[in-house]
Amino acid sequence: MNEISSQYFTRVLLTLLDETFDGVHGYYLDRGTSLFETLSTITAAQASVPVGGKCATLAAQVKHVSFHLDSVLKWLRDGNQEPFDWGEIWRTVNVVSSVEWQEIQTELRVNYENVKALIQFSSDWNSENKIGDAMAILAHTAYHLGEIRQALCTIQ
């Protein structure tokens, strides 16, 4: 079995994270559809609308992605395995003000930058769990990006 070098894995992972969050490189997104590009088009009022009248708001979707990043960061960095209340955000994040909407996006940016820095300076990819967690960030965020973009069809 051939092994992938940690350097290549890290570089590709960071590029895919960049595409998912910041700017398209042509791997899987269309121009202007990364998470932060998408969020820049959403107002607080739009972020407060329950999709379909009864589902989570976009604000809750974004807060959840941020929470996921922070949780994975704590796990990768500190080995923190305390139980997380994954349902709290879905129960509590609804209508947001412009200030709250901006704070949620800023928190997402900070958590994303922290995860990116941890990955950038990690040279040890010898654990299936660590690789799996890193890949899960991509898959989980891409899933919620798709949810957000689909919701915009009805909200905007």
Descriptive account of the structure:
This protein is mostly helical. The protein has a single domain, classed as Four Helix Bundle (Hemerythrin (Met), subunit A) (Up-down Bundle), CATH 1.20.120. It has seven helices and no strands. The chain has helices at residues 6-21, 35-39, 44-47, 58-78, 88-92, 98-120, 128-155. The longest helix has 28 residues, at 128-155. It is globular, with a radius of gyration of 16 Å. The mean pLDDT is 92.
Brief summary:
The chain is mainly α and 156 residues long. The protein has helices at residues 6-21, 35-39, 44-47, 58-78, 88-92, 98-120, 128-155. It has a single domain (6-155), classed as Up-down Bundle (Four Helix Bundle (Hemerythrin (Met), subunit A)).
